[in-house]
Amino acid sequence: MRFSEFLKDQNIIDPRHFIKKPLVSVIMPTYCRAHDGLLSQAITGVLTQTFSDFEFIILDDGSIDGSEVVIRDFQQQDDRILYVRHEINSGLPALRVNEGILMSKGDYIAFQFDDDIWLSHFLENVTRESMKRNRSFVHCQAKYLLGSDVLSPFFPIMQPTYASLLQRNTIANVSVLLHKSVFKSTGLYDPHVVLRRTTDWDLWIRIAKQEPPYMLPEVLVCAQGGFPDSIGIQAPWLGYEDFTLLFHVYRDNDLSPERIMDFDVISLDKFYDKLPRETLYRIYTNHVVSWLKHHKEEFVDFGIVNEDIKTLDTKMHTPNAKFFPKKTIKKSELRVRYIGVMRKVIKRLFLRMSKIFWIGYYSLFFMFTSWKQVFYDAWNLLPPSYMEIKNDPFILNYRSNGFLLKKSANLQHCNSILYQFTVRGGDLYTLALAFSRGDNNSYGSVGVEAIFLENRSVSHAITSVSNVSEEVPTTFFFEPPLKPGQYSLRIFGDHLKAQMYVYELYKYEGMKIIKQAFCKAGLV
């Protein structure tokens, strides 16, 4: 189903005296928000801005609760509103936002949503900063609400970067102002059904790769979540591992304003040769099929769907037929697999029978403390890029006390590795670790979990294995930063398909081993 098919029922309702050349275009998609007053609240927040040189494009994605009446009433009072009405609910907010961007006439694009709130100085302040600093990607801090609870009064606390965005989305969509030129170089929002809940995160990563975002350290918007009928609740969540595999697939050309009309919002063809078969099937069933079941009858009733529905409907009932063809296994391959299984069985049997021998062997080995300096110190094996960690006073203090450097247990096979960690001298924003990989398999993720021992609060950071390299330290970002105090630090791997180790400091005292994390803390 192509992007252009969702525009066939487009009904543009112009005001009598629409603004000719605004500086800013404000885009707001909406669906059935009139009944709870959120739509009126969001529109009022835009129209009462201290900055007035803007057009306000509202795209109604097939609302059936009286939203049209509310929007038309506001349009009668303010000529800056352009109302775009659709009878069909696509369930794809990114598609409607892209539609508004293509219609916009402003040099800058701002995004409002029907359940969020702008404070009166938002547009004035972000536009001023963008023009003053000549930055194309500007955002402010947001107050994040979940129902009536304040989850974060200042979000984010630290300036996001490309590296930090690879791990976590810390930019609220409603807080962003973009120069229109960025869409020519990085493309529009990806309107694919799989990215319904993460399409803004995907866009921030693509833009930040070319130009870092600039954060205005001021709370000018309120981002609200947790509503039962919101896309964040109804749409299935895309796992972090799957998301990282998807955003590494280059799509900028397909998402350009010139080619977006031909973009297929349900096809997975571009991912066939880049994602594992089980990942494709999971994404297909959890996202494409669920969206199709919810909207199929409506699309057919309005006559905008062609053979795509029939094709996917067939695939839905025979998912293992043409969509995911099974690989034919030759007899020779079966023989090789059988030999491999038998080797594993013999190896496990041998290891169990010799367990007592290995325990005795390592016990005797640890008694010869002079050997550890020769065989188990990897200090000089690390590349020069780790010099900053090696020169950290925290690390040098352990080295002077006789601690050596070695690889940890394999994160692929153990649940996690635990250390004790103390934050001193300020809040901790980043933590750099040294990893060693078994091969180049990029599926899975590694993460760090910090448990504050004073009140047992938990903070975590996670990154894709594709972002881990043996040549440079891997940096984890904490938002909000960790406060000074004692922490239990847990390093873990998730869905790893290859061996993964983290370097750690260690010291033997008799038969007892003392371990500490080999890391560099970034304080603010």
Task: Give the helices and strands, then pairings.
Blueprint: E1 11-13, E2 24-30, H1 38-47, E3 54-61, H2 67-77, E4 81-86, H3 93-103, E5 108-111, E6 117-118, H4 122-133, E7 137-146, E8 149-155, H5 162-165, E9 176-179, H6 182-186, H7 199-208, E10 214-225, H8 231-234, H9 240-247, H10 277-302, H11 307-317, H12 331-353, H13 355-367, H14 372-375, H15 387-390, H16 393-400, E11 404-407, E12 416-423, E13 428-433, E14 435-437, E15 445-452, E16 458-464, E17 474-482, E18 485-494, E19 500-509, E20 512-517, E21 519-523
Parallel strand pairs: 2-3, 2-5, 3-4, 7-10
Antiparallel strand pairs: 1-4, 5-9, 6-10, 7-8, 7-9, 11-19, 12-18, 13-17, 13-21, 14-19, 15-16, 15-18, 19-20
Short description:
This protein has helices spanning 38-47, 67-77, 93-103, 122-133, 162-165, 182-186, 199-208, 231-234, 240-247, 277-302, 307-317, 331-353, 355-367, 372-375, 387-390, 393-400; strands spanning 11-13, 24-30, 54-61, 81-86, 108-111, 117-118, 137-146, 149-155, 176-179, 214-225, 404-407, 416-423, 428-433, 435-437, 445-452, 458-464, 474-482, 485-494, 500-509, 512-517, 519-523. With 524 residues, it is α+β, with helices and mostly antiparallel strands.
